[in-house]
Design a protein that fits this description.
CATH class of the domain at 105-192: Mainly Alpha
Order of helices and strands: HEHHEHHEHHEHH
Number of helices: 9
GO molecular function: cadherin binding; calcium ion binding
Protein name: EPS15 factor
Keywords: Calcium, Metal-binding
Strand order of the largest sheet: 1-2
Structural class: mainly alpha
Organism: Edolisoma coerulescens
Shape: elongated
């Protein structure tokens, strides 16, 4: 992985290059920020080779449902998985188009009814319309932030009918005391959002200027839930 982010072969990785690369892990920006903070021990915004390997190890931990902490570094986990940023799927060369969607048909009907009641525009709901529904669950704001980031699969700040179903599915999982995953499992990606990977694991060696710009635009943390909302009412 190192040659792909250390194009100058200087033995170090800049934050901007690392951000573009780490986004391909499929993890949320909140989780990636925590990984960076743990790996960048001196806070200089640059990772040396050893620190970069710590970041990769933490990515693998998060992808396998382990805590993102230095205590997890010694636990046995498979290698981290990265995919092209044009695909929302977190796959390691396996075909996901055959996987049945985790959202059951009878649940989808209920989620669609809620979706329609929120007056979608052109088949999309803005964050402002989804926010009250999420907050109504009384789940912690950090959990709801992760639900939003995982369900907004195409990162457009809006939820379509299928993305909203993913959000509702994750909320109900959390209400049943099931942990919300750090990255979206392939089975939860709606069939409408699944893209075949022609070359598994293929990715550009040097991030283009446009992909760097886009990644920075999509990095702000939990946009719709960032404002402090009084939950006591």
């Amino acid at each position: 992985f190192l040659p792909q982010v250390d194009s100058a072969n200087a033995g170090r990785v800049l934050a901007s290059d690392a951000a573009v690369f780490l986004k391909k892990s499929g993890l949320t920006d909140l989780v990636l920020g925590k990984i960076w903070d743990l790996a960048d021990t001196d806070g200089k915004g640059i990772l040396n080779k050893q620190e970069f390997f710590v970041a990769l190890r933490l990515v693998a931990c998060a992808q396998n449902g382990l805590d993102v902490s230095l205590n997890s570094l010694n636990l046995p986990v498979p290698p981290p998985r990265f995919t092209d940023t044009s695909s929302p799927l977190l796959l390691s060369g396996t075909a996901s188009s055959d996987l049945p969607w985790a959202v059951k048909l009878e649940d989808k009907v209920k989620y669609d009814a809620i979706f329609d009641s929120l007056n979608p525009v052109n088949g999309l709901l803005s964050g402002d319309k989804v926010k009250p529904v999420l907050l109504n669950s009384k789940l912690p704001v950090d959990i709801l932030g992760r639900v939003w980031e995982l369900s907004d699969i195409d990162r457009d700040g809006m939820l379509d009918r299928d993305e909203f179903a993913v959000a509702m599915f994750l909320v109900y999982c959390a209400l049943e005391k099931e942990p919300v995953p750090m990255s979206l499992p392939a089975a939860l990606v709606p069939p409408s959002k699944r893209k075949p990977l022609s070359v598994p694991g293929a990715m550009p060696l040097i991030p283009s200027a446009t992909s760097t710009k886009e990644s920075h635009q999509s990095l702000p943390p939990v946009g719709i839930l960032a404002a402090k909302t009084p939950l006591t009412q």
